[in-house]
Amino acid sequence: MKNLKLILSLFALILFLGCSDENNDVDLDGVNAPSNISALTTITQDNSGNVTFLPRGEGVTQFEIYFGDATTAPVFVNPGGTITHKYKEGKFQAKIVGVTINGKKTETIQEVTVSFLAPTSFEPTITIGSNLSINVTAKAELETFFQVYFGDVANEVPVDFMQDEVITHTYLNPGTYQVKVVALSGGVATTQKTQSVTVTNLFAAPVPTIPAANVISMFSDSYTNVAVDTWRTSWSQANLEDIDISGNKTKKYSALNFVGIEATTTPINASAMTFFHVDVWSSDFTEFKVKLVDFGANGAFGGGDDKEHEITIPNPEKEKWVSLDIPLSDFTGLTTRSHIAQLIFVGAPSGNTTVYVDNVFFYNQAGSITAAPTPSVAASKVISMFSDAYTNVTVDTWRTSWSSATLTDLSINGNATKKYSALDFVGIEATTTPINATAMTHFHTDVWSSDFTQFKIKLVDFGANGAFGGGDDVEHEITISSPAKGSWVSLDIPLSSFTGLTTRAHIAQLIYVGAPSGNNTVYIDNVYFHN
Prior knowledge:
Elements: H1 2-20, E1 35-43, E2 50-58, E3 62-66, E4 75-77, E5 83-86, E6 90-99, E7 105-114, E8 120-128, E9 133-141, E10 145-149, E11 159-161, E12 167-170, E13 175-184, E14 191-199, E15 215-219, E16 237-245, E17 248-262, E18 275-281, E19 287-294, E20 307-314, E21 322-327, E22 340-348, E23 355-363, E24 382-386, E25 404-412, E26 415-429, E27 442-448, E28 454-461, E29 474-481, E30 489-494, E31 507-515, E32 522-530
Parallel strand pairs: 21-25
Antiparallel strand pairs: 1-2, 2-5, 3-4, 3-6, 6-7, 8-9, 9-12, 10-11, 10-13, 13-14, 15-23, 16-17, 17-22, 17-23, 18-21, 18-23, 19-20, 19-22, 24-32, 25-26, 26-31, 26-32, 27-30, 27-32, 28-29, 28-31
Protein name: PKD domain-containing protein
Organism: Flavobacterium yafengii
Keywords: Signal
């Protein structure tokens, strides 16, 4: 019967290909052997010993299943099909064989446990992934299979899985969910555990772009890290977990009041550095503080030559990575920096906040970037898109989905700044409320880069219909060749220079372009129209 099925399948395939194109040759020898062969085995909870096999694999035309008990002849199952077999109690080595249309085979041995007792030694593992996802695995004794309920829908149908299999689930919304994992055998009794998990929009922190030669790193996958004695001192008031987010190592501090981090064995000499950097993410903090402590030449805290200073970041943005690039000159009390042995993070509300931390390092950037200059144009003459000096209009996004750049919102000397790294081009849109700049005469933006060779600015008016490509769009792009590096460049461009921008009543798009393409970093501040 098996050979007949394969012959018929071959005949049908050849007939189909021959009818569709008489010149096609069917190379069956080129078909690869099956891969990823396994089976989901579930058992009914009625002491019957009835186990159902759902074989799985890639490139399979048919499965052969050898049950591993007294039944020696295989059964044949088509992809997507199941077969039920009655076992006695015990452990059995079932063989699952995947067969291709040309007869190539791949097989695997899968243990089937049949017991009518409740599973024992049950150990489910739930790990928080990124972007609202979790991963679930489990192991136990006397179990045949597992089920997991993710707790996010009513009348939930559980997902069946096997030991060592990883089940990933993505929630629609952030929140706390009750995840129930059940170990099942062939009897009525089951073993189960429920765990509360909190998921967020958390994803891996942005990848730093500072050259390694300019960095002293305490914690980052991007650099070689110096020795740190502890990331949570005994006197800290916080819980520490070392976690992995999308393959990126991250520190998670929960119930955070304050946490001490020490490098006392080998204090850090940051005398040649100009900035301290850290990326932080939280869904609930209202304030964040960073303290640096230099223990002095004697290397002992309280030795008489300690220096320290604490920086406060009020109301940091939530549910996103906040990149803090703090000039070391802002740590005014840190008058020496050659024996930095202690770093302290403080969160608020005290003891009731969770903060994720990554990319903790000192660096020296050519040009020593400071905050952009403060604009002096009267607010009554300005339409501001982004500036701490003015009230800003609504901007839908500072990085469209079709952009080729990485956006980081950071603070420099307490001044909000946009950082575009790996910049080719970035789209900024105000489509919900387009900007009427008809009464304005200039477009202004401050830009800073240590590596750009060219910078372009495009303004696009979507027209009265408010839709891009609606037939009444107008636009123009200005090129700034060889802009100065390592200092803020204030661009005040007459709108009359945007000669193709013949209407300005519905400006909905601003595009920045950097060169060398995809290999430059540009800081942006004070983006506005003015008269």
